[in-house]
Design goal:
458 residues; Aspartate Aminotransferase, domain 2; globular; tyrosine phenol-lyase activity; ArAA_b-elim_lyase/Thr_aldolase; lyase; Tyrosine phenol-lyase; PyrdxlP-dep_Trfase_small
């Protein structure tokens, strides 16, 4: 008998019971949450695809590592293990731990971003851009145009930087006004799309020519390395570790949320080669996070983080992780549901504008679609569209070309049977799409509004 997929490359040692609310109670729950899936109680969710950030299942070795926590306020042994692990895997000289990725973004932005500076990047990320703008900088999107076209499936590396756009920005504003270029590997809001090794080389060469730092957002760098291995010529016989080492050779530093490809529940870091940047970050981390030897993490968290970074390099692990996402995406494609193509590494992204063409973007089709999926099935997803994009400095909404709902797959958590249920729920929602109506804000926070905003039907 032909198999549609290989079984999970792990066995279950502990289980967490799930329950599904009756539909009437799901409707009440989403109404209490103001039609914002971030405000749902976890106990009311059946299958949680809100995020892959900190929602992953740790291994037995990581759990064993928790028992080896050195909770010294300064000089924790677990920090030195984490530091050496990052140095060995990525090759950076310095590591400053933080409680999660946005802590690293805050440090980097406070040190380098000033008013009238410009930070190019391959599509914005919400917290990254917020930190840049709060320090007076201006984010400039220099990703290739194809990244903004959801059904453009013949581009294998939609996360690539457009070198001409980047060079034009340098010529326009001056290299001295660009503190760094932020390269996401992979690009979340483009649909989990990877960046090719060739593009990383080109970005590095142009940046060095003009004296501009290259800083990676390396939250999902292992997924990016996997796509390089299976899609880019010359890398099929390279190990994930070898590909990762070459990737980071084209960077001067990186921010990371360990809650993704570190396979832990909390943690992050800012890494760099530059001594002066390290000294400034070490001083500032004390103000916002903690000592430079824990940065907002416990010793046991740092130990689990170090172990998780090593486990993530295993090819069988990352192959299964990406193939689970592809499995769900392909089931939706077969049913005619519009999604971002090619399928990314950490999530399937529904194209809400194509899913709900009768709802204008000003009425937040991705937000209402996420709410309707929960009503249909108890599955929690999240909006990645106009609400996530927010407003510019004049208060105008951005209206991005991509209006998406993200179905994010946690690592080592759900089986293919869970994904079958999710696919059936999305397809059932698609069949009744004409019944769905738009939303308006009842409460709009001034920044990162997708986290705590509230809505009601128009």
């Amino acid at each position: 008998m032909d198999k549609k997929y290989m079984p999970e490359p792990y066995k279950v040692k502990m289980v967490e019971p799930l329950r599904i609310l009756p539909k009437e109670e799901r409707i009440e729950a989403i109404e209490r949450a103001g039609y914002n899936t971030f405000l749902l109680n976890s106990r009311d969710v059946y299958i949680d695809l809100l995020t892959d950030s900190g929602t992953n299942a740790m291994s037995d070795r990581q759990w064993a590592g928790l028992m080896m926590g050195d909770e010294a306020y300064a000089g924790s042994e677990n920090f030195y293990h984490l530091q050496k692990t990052v140095q060995d895997i990525m090759g950076f000289k310095h590591v400053v731990p933080t409680h999660q990725g946005r802590g690293a973004e805050n440090l980097l932005s406070q040190i380098l971003v000033r008013p009238n500076t410009y930070i190019p990047g391959n599509m914005y990320f919400t917290t990254t851009r917020a930190h840049q703008e709060m320090n007076g900088g201006t984010f400039v999107d220099v990703i290739i145009d194809e990244a903004h076209i959801s059904d453009k499936e013949d581009v294998h590396f939609k996360g690539n930087i457009d070198i001409k756009k980047y060079e034009d920005l340098i010529n326009k504003v001056g290299a001295e006004n660009i503190p760094y270029i932020c390269v996401g590997v992979t690009v979340n809001l483009a649909g989990g799309q990877p960046v090719s090794m060739q593009n990383l080389r080109e970005v590095h060469a142009l940046s060095k020519k003009h004296g501009i730092r290259v800083m990676f957002d390396c939250t999902r760098y292992v997924e990016n390395a996997y796509f390089i291995k299976v899609r880019e010529e010359g890398y099929a016989d390279k190990s994930i570790a070898e590909i990762v080492k070459e990737m980071f050779s084209y960077a001067d530093g990186a921010t990371m949320s360990g809650k993704k490809d570190g396979i832990v529940n909390i943690g992050g870091f800012l890494a760099m080669n530059e001594d002066d940047l390290y000294f400034k970050a070490s001083a500032l981390v004390v103000v916002y996070e903690g000592m430079p030897s824990y940065g907002g993490m416990t010793g046991r968290d740092m130990e689990a983080f170090a172990i998780g970074l090593k486990e993530a390099l295993d090819f069988n692990y990352i192959k299964h992780r990406v193939e689970q996402v592809e499995y769900l995406g392909n089931k939706l494609i077969e049913a005619g549901v519009p999604i971002v193509r090619p399928i990314g590494g950490h999530a399937v992204f529904l194209d809400a504008r194509a899913f709900l063409p009768h709802i204008p973007q000003s009425e937040y089709p991705a937000q209402v679609l996420a709410a309707e999926i929960f009503i249909q099935s108890g599955v929690r997803t999240m909006e990645r569209g106009n609400i996530s994009a927010g407003r510019d400095k004049e208060g105008n909404e951005y209206f991005p070309k991509l209006e998406l709902v993200r179905l994010t797959i946690p690592r080592r958590v759900y089986s293919y049977a869970h994904l079958d249920y999710v696919a059936e729920a999305i397809i059932a929602t698609y069949k009744r799409r004409d019944e769905i109506k738009g939303l308006k804000f009842t409460y709009e926070p001034p920044v990162l509004r997708f986290f705590t905003g509230r809505f009601e039907h128009i």
